[in-house]
Write a structure and sequence with these properties.
Bound molecules: zinc ion
Number of strands: 16
Number of helices: 9
Shape: elongated
Strand content: 25-35%
Order of helices and strands: HHEEEHEHEEEEEHEEEHEEHEHEH
Strand order of the largest sheet: 1-2-4-3-5-16-6-15
Distance between the termini: 16 Å
Structural class: alpha/beta
Largest sheet: 8 strands, mixed
């Protein structure tokens, strides 16, 4: 059993001082200080930004097993009466990454006493998950190359599911998603002479209607969700000369995303051409699908059995996105959802707070996976 009081108060300290994606230095410093108590064989700083690794190395042959958690919080103003509520206006740990970090710290606590018997265990505190940049940056960082894992695991707490129960599946676990910004450019004119301009109005209206209707691919569901639109300026004297349309594209697989993205751009290009407009695309918030390997999934199922944690195999993956997919694209591994309670406030809501009851549950599932792969002294 972990020393829960010390871990709970650590979680509350992290919660009180949230950092936004790409600016997690203060959180990373807190992690580093706490990790030193648990004597990893090596700590590597500044991985893919403010990320850090704690390495428990048996110095014997065997697999490298990575457990990932996230450092970042969200630009949300927290609504909470807790004494540990965010001390920073407009920033909150509303996705529970404070709890995920604490779970991984609890794993470190056990590993400090029962070290891996073979191979290595890498605890990764990853930066910038919320903007989809962090996992990629970690993987691209040359300092990470010697630590590339054979197996990678991560969890995310999930409000709306029963507290402390695990939900996972082989195959797509989280959707791929990409933010598409379409810029349409024509020519303004006096509102009295709209025929002298080139207005994007018709093209914008048709795209707003047709983009969400783009069909799925490979028998899988896809979603195009319009999130923002802007036409011209707020000026009664001017016929508009430009428009912006933003949409989130979501698919179960990366291949379907490639097709959906091509189709969305082709549709916008055709509409622009027909209306005599120029068109330009920008992409943001780019998440790969997170796909569990069969072997990774099986390790989670068995780890849950050994930890006596109820484990459900889901029929479908979650629609939300996660950048963990980078790790399972490059090796074995799986992600699992950990129920945060049926009535628990949803992720990214101002009243969300991580349930501390999940700390020993997550810790135990991860430790059982490690015990199977690396053995523990
Ligand atoms: Zn989130
Ligand atoms: Zn999250």
């Amino acid at each position: 059993m972990p020393n829960l009081n010390s871990l709970q108060s650590f979680r509350q300290t992290l919660h009180r001082h949230p950092d936004l994606s790409g600016h997690e230095e203060a959180t990373a410093a807190r992690i580093r200080e706490k990790l030193a108590e648990y004597q990893p064989d090596q700590i590597v700083d500044n991985i893919g930004g403010a990320g850090l690794l704690a390495v428990y190395d048996s110095q014997k042959p065997g697999p490298t097993t990575l457990i990932r958690c996230e450092l970042d919080a969200l630009p949300i103003h927290e609504r909470s009466a807790q004494p540990y509520c965010s001390a920073h206006h407009g920033r909150a740990h509303a996705c529970g990454h404070d709890g995920h970090m604490t779970i991984v710290m609890a794993v470190a606590q056990t590993l400090s006493r029962s070290r891996p018997a073979s191979g290595r265990v890498i605890l990764l505190f990853q930066p910038a998950e919320e903007d989809g940049q962090g996992a990629r940056r970690v993987f691209a960082d040359p300092a990470f190359t010697p630590f590339r894992p054979d197996y990678a695991f991560a969890l995310h707490n999930v409000p709306g599911l029963p507290l402390g129960e695990v939900f996972t599946r082989p195959g797509p676990f989280n959707c791929a998603s990409r933010g598409l910004i379409i810029h349409l450019e024509g020519k303004t004119s006096h509102a009295a002479h709209p025929e002298e301009g080139v207005s994007p109005t018709g093209a914008l209206a048709r795209l707003m209607e047709q983009l969400p209707q783009l069909p799925g691919h490979f028998n899988e569901a896809t979603w195009v969700t319009l999130v923002h639109a802007k036409l011209g300026e707020k000026a009664f004297g001017t016929a508009p000369g430009d428009a912006v349309l933003m949409a989130t594209l979501r698919t179960e697989t990366n291949d379907a995303m490639t097709l959906l993205a091509d189709q969305a751009c082709a549709m916008a290009t055709a509409e622009a051409k027909a209306a005599g407009l120029s068109v330009r695309f920008e992409w943001e918030d780019d998440f790969l699908a997170s796909v569990n390997t069969v072997q990774g999934y099986q390790h989670i199922v068995t780890a849950c059995e050994e930890a006596r944690v109820p484990c459900h195999t889901m029929d479908e993956g979650f629609r939300w996105s996660e950048d963990f997919g980078v790790f399972t694209l490059n090796g074995e591994g799986a992600m699992f959802g950990l129920g945060a309670g049926i009535e628990h406030p949803q992720l990214h809501n101002p009243d969300y707070d991580f349930p501390d009851e999940l700390i020993p549950v997550g810790q135990s599932v991860f430790l059982n996976a490690i015990r199977r792969l690396n053995g523990m002294g």
